[in-house]
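Figure 2 data, in text form.
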Amino acid sequence: MHPHHKTGILSLGVIVSAALLPAQTLAGTKDLFSTQNVYDARCLADIPPYVKNAKNQDPNQTQVSITADHAQADLRQSVNYSGNVEIVQGQKTLKAEKTSFNHETQDIKATGNIFYQDGEVTVKSDTTLTTNLKTNDTRLDKATYRLNGTLVRGYADEAVITDQANRVSLRNAYITTCPTDNETWKISSTEIQMDKNEVFGEAYNTLFWFHDVPVFYLPYLNFPVKNQRKSGLLYPVIGWSSSDGILLKAPVYWNIAPNYDMTITPTLIGRRGLLMESEFRYLPFQGTQGTMMGQYIHHDRKRPDKDETDKFHERWLYTLNHKSYWDNKNYGIEADYTQIRSGDFNYVDDFDPNSVTTIDNQLTQEVKGFVNLHNFDASVRRLRYQLLQPDSQLLFQPFKIEPEVKLGYHDTVYSWLSYKLGMTYSNFRVDHHYRSGSYYAQRIHLEPEILIPLIDRKGISLSFREKLFYTHYDQSIPRSGYTNFVVQYLTVDDLKPTVDRFLNLSEIKGKVTFTNTLESGKTLTLEPEIQYMYIPYKNQDAIGLYDTLDRLYDFESLFSYRRYSGFDRISDANRISYGLTHRIFDEDYREILRFQIGQGYDFTTQRVKLFRLDNQNYYPRTPISTALNLSPVKGISAHGDLVYDTEDSELASWSALINGEYEDFRGQINYRYKRDGNQTMKNEIIDLRQLGGSVQVPLGRDWHAIGVMYYDLYQKKNIDSKLAVKYDSCCYSLGVQAERYNKPNNYTLKSRNETKFGVFFELKGLANVGADTSFTAETKLLPYNDTVNLSK
């Protein structure tokens, strides 16, 4: 075959793709066949998969195959093919009734039932395609096109390519993502101009059509033709709430530079006024990124509420989230900082900023630097809190940590010993209006450890561990009436300015694993384990509580010496702990059941208490702890855990969760109970009894619904509930969502139900308009939580 024919089919492929695809479309196209739960199978029927075209391909090294019913050649001037012409080169295919190639003019012409396809685009036309291989000037009439691997398709009366295939002009063209037999919407333009040397293309007389009815018109529109962002208006967000009325966001995007941008969002809140929000994102160099966000409302018409003591109208918030990493994240700096106006305790609940999370009604302000090498790690941290409650309503005020320094080193000596060295320095403080009421403390904690594996064979392990604890405290104790509040029930006389505490842990732990494989292919294991642990008693009442609280008791904590979080209390122990784990694996070694049960026995009564006034527990046996994880078949799973107090012969806590999934149906129901495990806004200790559930059901081929409910059985009130209905076709979706949740007031320490309502509209593959809604089981207050813990 003459070399010109090789050049012809390859160049033609590039030209046809250029006529119908902007550059960034090719770069950003994804194959929807690999994307689950986005479109169902009917939407992807007859859509060829996306395969990225080869770049810099040498046409003289790529084989060309030409078949036709008839061929006529004039070697000096032209070659003509007719009747079922098919030209194939690599992944490019051109079909037509007739094709001709003129050697002298380098013109190619194809007519009748034209079909062109490569990895990225499919084009069809019943008329004529002409192109010149010298100039790359091309004209294609009355063509339909499809972007492979996507729902995007369209039509053009005329496509003209000039200037070495750099300039593309489309006349009377439209684009849609709807199937050919159900063209619900489309966007049309009388003329579209694109230049590969420019960042943006231009469209004239653009109309948005819905069911053949024009609903929106733009005389002029420009759009990116390269993988670059463009400044301009983003799609609006619409919502409604029972307390604030209508909400309308009109975001404006500013593309400052390729690695810097900003979104400015004026938000009209019906009963409050105009809230301004800006978000600045930056990527100054590799490994570093961050976001700064601020909100400001000059005059909140709903403030001051009659229950709010601070009489101001101006409200604001700003946040910083920064991350810098080097050397494959072996070194790094992280910052997470949020601040609101002092005394504006309801700001987060009133405006619900997306980038802000609260922990125990506190905003965190943290900066951390770290080193994480093979045997050595170190970190420096500064942590502050901004409280979202008045000081008068707090039981305990958290300590700031300025700074905390951690150093750690670990290594092994051959295979018979491993050791760790750890040191933590912490500087705690709580500021008071008067300097005499401020409280400061410094803590140095050293924790060396050795671990000796006495037996380490298949199915049998036995190890010995020895750990030392040395902690030094310097406590600057305030002498004011504020002291008892700050130091958490510990009076000045209880605390000492300087305390040294020296303790050691001795532990021996063994485990045996019995395995049995059945004829059915299932594998069963039985794994008994036992541990003895000794820590001597040391009176620690002279030490303040800076970062130490009770830990949740469960099967895993049964074998831990850490009865409390933090270092301010290290409990004495003279305990033997014993547990049993039973597992079942199917023939593919998927874990389908795990059952665990354990208990501990204290040879001597534990004497260390968190608070000085806590009751002493003399009962030698710990509660029985059990856990069950089950997945008998794919699509059904369950989790349950239970703690039984043998001293009082009653349940201390239990929870249960069941998941179900079949085709498009998903459901979950869960329950939690913990004795004295909840706290009201007025700091009253009550039982935790909460029931929750979620369900996602198909209501037909295109309709889906989600219902979520969480209810407090003890307080007999709704926590959070949501109902959402969505119509989801191949070319657009429409959703309605209503949510009712418990909204607190941090001034009155009361709560009330808040209702939010939103409508969401999406053109598949193009844009979405509507409320900040997500069609998931997530709610405002509670995430979707699956506690089933099984190996896959």
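Caption note: The radius of gyration is 35 Å.
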